[in-house]
Design brief:
Layout: E1 2-6, H1 14-17, H2 21-24, E2 27-31, H3 39-46, E3 51-54, H4 63-66, E4 74-77, H5 87-92, E5 96-99, H6 105-121, H7 124-132, E6 150-154, H8 158-169, E7 173-177, H9 183-188, E8 192-193, H10 196-202, E9 205-208, H11 222-227, E10 233-236, H12 245-253, E11 258-261, H13 274-277, E12 281-283, H14 292-310
Parallel strand pairs: 1-2, 1-3, 3-4, 4-5, 6-7, 6-9, 7-8, 9-10, 10-11, 11-12
Helix pairs in contact: 6-8
């Protein structure tokens, strides 16, 4: 019988997000609800599976791991882009790679960015901890209002444009920059297009909304963070690799910046990581897309993709150079 591994189900939501009955009637389906310790652990646990259904940006699938899974015939990923998955290596080995729709992940990620910004500005996590610890307001610093402040959006696409709407509703001034952004597109989203340096030096909040690519990797380095206003808030719900991690750690440890982060260089975040120890950092565990509406589309499509593959007529197939 075909063996199917449903991995990366860290929130234990896969089973209730779709009807798996037709698939479990035809295959041995196993759900993996905890992260693999490393590549060796992933190899050991996945070696006997014919199909792997994964959530992107969780378990890395470099070529070295692909090469160690000779039984793998189909790989399903959520969305068409996944920086941690070497789909080209899979396709080169004759593995069918399928993708799913993304559901309302743009909305969910923008809403989380808004929540992180508010949480950092109003010290919400510290306040929550104070109440639970019996300290109430003692030890919780006063926050700041956002009305009248300036937000700088690095990236003004599908998610950044939504964030611009939310920030304008709060009475904020909205600046925007990316390599390809023009003044007309910015104005249509209710933002003012400025240079990168002007955005960084003029914003009380900087929020990143770029896709990760060779051109955007490390787009905020030490010199960029140094341009930001002392006490400014840096929000990242996009990809951790957009920011130089060492520079970010130095900036928060010095107290110059407050960070609100949903994405990290290594996920899960290792115990004792400097960003997890810093009191001026708000952290969420990569929840940008993690809402029931998105998971419903992810897993419904994953089941459809696996069924179609078993029928010999795969759907939503990635080609070597893209869809």
């Amino acid at each position: 019988m075909t063996r199917i591994a449903v991995i990366d189900d860290w929130q234990k939501i896969a089973r209730r997000s779709a009807d798996w009955s037709a698939l479990t009637a035809r295959a041995d389906v196993r759900f993996f609800e905890t992260p693999f310790a490393d590549e060796n652990d992933a190899t050991r646990q996945l070696a006997d599976f014919d199909i792997v259904l994964a959530i992107r940006e969780r378990t890395p699938f470099p070529e070295s791991l692909v090469a160690r899974l000779p039984k793998l015939k189909m790989f399903g990923q959520t969305g068409a882009r996944a920086a941690l998955i070497d789909t080209a290596a899979m396709i080169a080995r004759g593995i069918t790679v399928c993708y799913t729709g993304g559901g309302p992940s743009g909305t969910s990620t923008a809403e989380l960015a808004l929540g992180l910004m508010l949480a950092a500005a109003r010290r919400i996590p510290a306040g929550d901890a104070g109440v639970r610890d019996g300290r109430f307001q003692a030890g919780t610093e006063a926050g700041r209002i956002l009305d009248g402040k300036t937000v700088g959006l690095i990236g003004l696409g599908r998610i950044g444009s939504r964030m611009a709407v939310y920030c304008r509703a709060l009475g904020m001034n909205v600046l925007a920059w990316s390599q390809n952004l023009n003044a007309e597109t910015a104005a249509a989203a209710g933002a003012v297009r400025v240079g990168k340096e002007e955005l960084l030096s003029g914003a009380d909040v900087v929020s990143l909304h770029l896709q990760l690519s060779d051109r955007t990797r490390g787009i905020l380095g030490a010199a960029d963070l140094a341009r930001m206003r002392p006490g400014a808030i840096l929000v990242n719900t996009a990809r951790a690799q957009l920011i130089d991690e060492s520079a970010l750690i130095a900036a928060v440890e010095s107290g110059r910046l407050t960070a609100a982060l949903d994405v990290f260089y290594r996920e899960p975040v290792p115990a004792g990581h400097p960003l997890a120890r810093a009191t001026n950092v708000v952290l969420t565990p990569h929840l940008g897309y993690s809402v029931v509406e998105v998971y419903r589309e992810y897993y419904q499509h994953a089941v459809e993709n696996a069924m179609a593959f078993l029928d010999g007529a795969p759907i939503r197939v990635l080609q070597a150079a893209g869809r």
